[in-house]
């Protein structure tokens, strides 16, 4: 049975390269989504800019702390593509804000429970010294907030910033417990990848069906671009009411 095309949702950009290139060499177009592939053979990919996301949350925390303070970083599984890319952006932000001092970083494996446990240990080891928290996803950020509250501290006094904009994260922002987050348009990545794949199969007469191209102002470019970037949406107390439902 002939395979007309393939959608690839990467977990690890390096590990996915071999099967992607095998498909391409067999004449099967491959459209990537979620994480950037390290293969330059991939037909096209539509992703968020994770290094930019990491830099954005670092810059927002620097602004909140007026450029000075001790911070900690909760990371995803070490070596996973999103962890590497988001940490790259965080490091770039820290380099641009030398008044921020990174006193600890550790993986919470994208887990709320692990994020809470790591934060509890930090609050004990660095009692009264932590001024802010950067988390590479919202689940770990929510765990950090629980640890902060359990320690008798006010989350508003130890700002926590996450990434992904999950429902619980949005509610935490609305409740004043999470300082802010970046919303990842997973729907845009999925629907966009499908449109690009259909363009490969149907040809230049194909018109994109998803609304994301217009609503997010992503240039369709005839459906033939090698790389499409989905923008991040900043979620904070000023705009969160619009995105709760």
UniProtKB/TrEMBL annotation:
Statement: the UniProt record of this protein carries the keyword Metal-binding: no
Cellular component annotations (GO), alphabetically ordered: cell envelope
SUPFAM superfamilies: Periplasmic binding protein-like I
Subcellular location as annotated: Cell envelope
Main location as per UniProt: other
Pfam families xref list: Peripla_BP_4 (PF13407)
Superkingdom to which the source organism belongs: Bacteria
GO molecular function: carbohydrate binding
Keywords annotated in UniProt: Signal
Stretches assigned to the Periplasmic binding protein domain: 11-204
Matching PANTHER family: D-ALLOSE-BINDING PERIPLASMIC PROTEIN-RELATED
UniProt family annotation: Belongs to the bacterial solute-binding protein 2 family.
Name this polypeptide is given: Substrate-binding domain-containing protein
């Amino acid at each position: 049975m002939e395979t007309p095309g393939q959608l690839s949702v990467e977990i690890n950009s390096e590990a996915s390269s071999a099967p992607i290139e095998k498909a391409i060499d067999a004449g099967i177009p491959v459209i990537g989504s979620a994480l950037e592939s390290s293969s330059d053979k991939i037909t096209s990919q539509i992703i968020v800019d994770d290094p930019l996301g990491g830099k954005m949350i670092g810059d927002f925390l620097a602004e909140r702390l007026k450029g000075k303070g001790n911070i900690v970083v909760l990371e995803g599984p070490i070596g996973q593509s999103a962890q590497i890319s988001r940490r790259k952006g965080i490091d770039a932000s820290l380099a641009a804000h030398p008044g921020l001092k990174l006193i600890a970083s550790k993986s919470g494996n994208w887990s709320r429970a692990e994020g809470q446990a790591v934060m509890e240990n930090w609050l004990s080891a660095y009692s009264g010294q932590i001024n802010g928290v950067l988390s590479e996803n919202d689940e770990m950020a929510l765990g950090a907030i629980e640890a902060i509250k359990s320690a008798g501290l006010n989350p508003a006094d130890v700002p926590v910033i996450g990434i992904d904009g999950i429902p619980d994260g949005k509610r935490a922002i609305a409740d004043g417990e999470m300082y802010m987050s970046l919303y990842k348009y997973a729907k845009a990545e999925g629907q966009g990848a499908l449109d690009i794949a259909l363009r490969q199969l149907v040809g230049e007469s194909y018109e994109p069906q998803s609304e994301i191209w217009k609503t997010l102002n992503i240039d369709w470019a005839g459906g033939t671009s090698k790389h499409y970037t989905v923008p991040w949406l900043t979620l904070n107390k000023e705009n969160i009411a619009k995105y709760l439902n």
